[in-house]
Amino acid sequence: MSAAEIDASGPGVPGADPALIQIEGARRSYELGDEVVHALRDVTLRIEAGEHVAIMGPSGSGKSTLMNVIGCLDQLNEGRYLLDGIDVRDRADDELAEIRNRKIGFIFQQFNLIARTSALENVELPLVYAGVGRRERRRRAHEALDQVGLGDRTGHQPSELSGGQQQRVAIARAIVTDPALLLADEPTGALDLATTEAVMALLDELHEQGRTIVVITHEEEVGAHAARVVRVRDGLIDSDLPAWVEATA
Amino acid sequence: MSALSALRMAWRSIAANRMRSLLTMLGIVIGVGSVILLVAAGNATTSAVEGKLEGLGTNTLVVYPGGYYYFNTGVPGTEPQLSEGDAEAIATAGRRGGIAGAYPVLSPQVVLQNGSRSDTVNEFTGVNPAYLRSAPVALAAGRLLTGLDERDRARVMILGSRVAERLFGKGKGAGQSVVANGVRFSVVGILAPVGAEFDSTAFAPFSAVRDNLSGPWAPPSLIYVEITHRSAAGLAKASIEVALRRSHQLRPGQEDDFSIEGPEGLVGTTNSISALLGIVLAGVAATSLFVGGMGVMNIMLVTVIERTREIGIRKAIGARRSQIVSQFLVESVVLCLLGGLGGVVVGGGLALVVGHFTGYAVSIGILPVVVAIGVSAAVGLFFGFYPANRAAAMPPIDALRHE
Ligand SMILES: Nc1ncnc2c1ncn2[C@@H]1O[C@H](COP(=O)(O)OP(=O)(O)OP(=O)(O)O)[C@@H](O)[C@H]1O
Ligand SMILES: [Mg+2]
Question: Nearest Cα to A5, choosing from A18, A109, B54, A14?
Fold first, then answer.
């Protein structure tokens, strides 16, 4: 299905409706001394707005590298990446920062909240960097925290919250700018089973509201929430199937 | 980013490492504190000299042993001296030479005692009571010294207000007696407070000081010359010079071995002291603020490394370079400002304490404080610049990966 779509509207075709994520012939390698590690060998991937995609694969297969590229945190050695129709190659640091700020919400395995800073202020931070005024910031941060069910914990600092609560604050921070894409790298990797279900239910809910979600995971239960599963191995895409096909396989 | 949230962030990070922040600030505290202390010292000397000027009155010239360029070589018997004969020689120039009187002064170091209370008087003045006519002193109690005291070699004394207070308590002492280096003197008068100089002095007749305190061979430490009128200062100086060169048997071409200071001379001295103090001040300030600034830079570099991951998170969620730079700059400026404020408090406090115990009038003024705090902020900006830019230049994934 996805392969056909990429053929139908090849990237860069004028007038074609661009996909949200369009990666073509992506290569990324790291040099460690004399050794060269090929994290991505030749990846072509297209994700439409509104999809819920799981990227799965064994450890070291290149999932996080792919996520860093999609999140404009890292650059390709070769190939092309269009995010929402924008070619992000060779852009200045500040431009990339602005793209991340406006288009992407990050959810990390280690939550990555700022220490000694209240939940509310953590959620406000992307809006601070976007230059949103104080009052508007407050309002939207409260709204996002309400949405993740933490409206009553706004004054708590990360150290005063459980892992699941911290991850929900992180999700609130990711959605507060109303980005086109939510990118989650092992969002439940540091959580127990019950909390994992709660966090995944929250992501499902956000998907139902029309957000595009890309989740990286190696837990099959987490992958099962997605509508489409992309499997990566050794820096290459191994399979790319709808979840119901996966389930019957 | 709003200034308030930047300040809040900076404060949080400073408060999170309280001990380290305090130690870092210490450099700036010491720098600014010593500058404030030196400013206070400078102001105190200036006002003390001004007090001395007023004390001398504008009708007095002072003759010191040693020329303007004289340095004590330390070889005994070589240092220039004044004598009582010199005073007589000056006096003979008379009113036509602009001279109303010349009074040699003996200044022995004297310890005054009243029972168990004692006071060391460094500016003890043995002088002909006639001099006190022209000196602007006022009595708080008792009487001044008289010509009869001088003639009778009377062991009498008048005390400056501070000296009296130390020995007898506030407003007391007239009519009592003190023991000066073991010799009993009656206290016939107490001076009203006028300023640091006279308040810490005691006066006794020249003859009695010669007999009892200085010993017969001590040369006068200086000669007070009363001039006929303010406008006669130039004439009087010329008369003194002629008289002393003759009595010291100086050949033409030889340097004066004495110096004459009028009120304007003292002003000159004050100015040169202030200039010297200014140079010392600038040196101390520059050195200590530089050292303090290096300390701040060092800690800011450590902070940046410790918070690498935080920087990565901030960049991931959209912080631009300038926003990261300003976060760390604000932090180092706040650190230095707090140090500067601490320095003002510590320096000012020390100056007040020292002033309290020495009797010097301490004042600092608002300008040095404003400048000190402004300079502290500038130090924070300057030394925070490199660490802040290092933070901003970190690639986001490397920063995020940092453990
Ligand atoms: N900055 C880097 N420097 C050197 N090698 C790297 C770097 N980032 C990734 N790699 C290498 O690239 C390969 C893919 O790494 P990546 O982090 O994408 O794997 P992953 O699929 O996310 O694994 P995991 O499931 O363990 O998180 C690995 O072999 C890794 O060692
Ligand atoms: Mg990974």
Answer: A18
Contacts (Cβ under 8 Å, ≥6 apart) of A93 = B320, B321
Of the candidates B226, B149, B142, B150, the residue with the CA atom closest to the CA atom of residue B192: B142
The DSSP code for A160 is G
d(C-alpha B101, C-alpha B88), whole Å = 9
Spatial neighbors of B32 by CB under 8 A, at least 6 apart, are B289, B339, B340, B342, B343, B344, B347, B372, B373, B375, B376
ipTM score: 0.91
Residue B47 to chain A, least CA–CA distance (Å) = 52
Ligand number, closest to the Cα atom of A185: 2
Do B5 and A93 make contact, defined as CB atoms within 8 angstroms? Answer: no
Q: Is A217 in the pocket of ligand 1 (CB under 6 A)?
A: no
Per-residue pLDDT of chain B (403 residues; tens, 9 = 90+): 567 778 888 898 899 889 999 999 998 998 899 888 888 887 777 777 666 665 556 678 888 888 765 555 656 666 788 888 999 999 988 888 889 889 999 988 899 998 888 888 877 888 888 887 777 677 888 898 988 999 999 999 999 888 898 899 887 888 899 999 999 999 999 988 876 567 888 999 999 999 999 888 889 988 988 888 877 888 888 899 899 899 888 888 888 888 888 766 655 666 677 777 778 877 888 888 899 999 999 999 999 999 999 999 999 999 999 999 999 999 999 999 999 999 999 999 999 898 888 777 778 888 889 999 999 999 999 999 999 999 999 999 989 988 7
B225 shares a domain with B134 = no
Report the predicted TM-score, pTM, of the whole model to 2 decimal places.
Answer: 0.70
CA distance B220 to B127: 10
Any domain includes B61? no
Q: Which residues of A touch B308 (CB under 8 A)?
A: none
Is position B263 within any domain? no
Give the C-alpha separation, B392 to B58, whole Å: 66
Q: With an 8 Å Cβ cutoff, are B315 and A97 in contact?
A: yes
Contact across the interface for B318 and A100, Cβ inside 8 Å: yes
Number of domains composing chain B: 3
Domains of chain A, each with CATH number or no CATH:
49-73+92-248 (3.40.50.300)
Domain span at residue B323? 3-52+268-401
Q: Does one domain contain both B302 and B351?
A: yes
Same domain, B204 and B119: yes
* CB interface of A with B, residues 103-122, below 8 Å: 106, 108, 112-117, 121
B81 plus B128 within the same structural domain? no
* Residue B127 and residue B206 in one domain: yes
The single-letter code of the amino acid at B81 is Q
Residue B310 sits at the chain A interface (C-beta within 8 Å)? yes
